[in-house]
Known about the structure:
7-stranded parallel β-sheet; protein-glutamate methylesterase activity; two-stranded antiparallel sheet; protein-glutamate methylesterase; alpha/beta
Amino acid sequence: xxKDKVRSSCCLAVIGGSAGSLDAILKILPxxxxxxxxxxxIVQHRxxxxxxxxxxxxxxxxxxSVKEVEEKETVTPGTVYIAPADYHLLFETDHSFSLDAxxxxxxxxxxxxxxxxxxADVYGSSVIGILLSGANADGxxxxxxxxxxxxxxxxxxxxxxEVSYMPAEALRRLQPDLVLPAEGIGMYLNAI
Length: 192
C-alpha cells in the first residue's frame, strides 16, 4: 500500500454498492478495528422491506455498532450506518443525517451519487469514498466530487467484484486513488 495514499485525518468513509456488494461489505467489516475515529456509512441499492435484516447481518461481522440511519441523527465515529431503503441519504453541515424522498437518481433511491456528493460538500478532504460491485453507474459522479473536494477515492477491483460494471465504469471515467479487493479496502481503512 502506498504511504502517500494513507490519510491520518478521516472523519467519514462512505461505501456505495449495488448488485453483489453485500459480499464485499461482509469482507470489509470484519477487518475494521474498534475504536476508530471515523464513521462508516453504507449506501446499498435494496428493496424496501418492513423488517430489513441487514443491520443484524452486518452486526454479526464487526465489533462496531451497526444501525440504520435516523433523520437528524448525529454522525458518530466508530459506528456503521446503513442508508434506509427508499430514501436519499444526505449530510448536514452540523454533521447530522438528513433523509430525502425526492425522485430517484440513476434509477435508485438511495442514490450513491447523492450521498457521495453530499459527503464531499460537508466533509471535503476528510472523506473516503468507496465504490463496490454493481450493475449501473450510480456512484461514479459522486466519487469524482469526493476526489475534487480532496477526499480519497477507492474502487473495488472489478476482477474481484461479483458484478463488475459499476467499478469498471468508475475506472473508465475517473482515476481513483486506489483499486483494491474488498479485504484490501478493510486493511486500508485500518491504516488510517
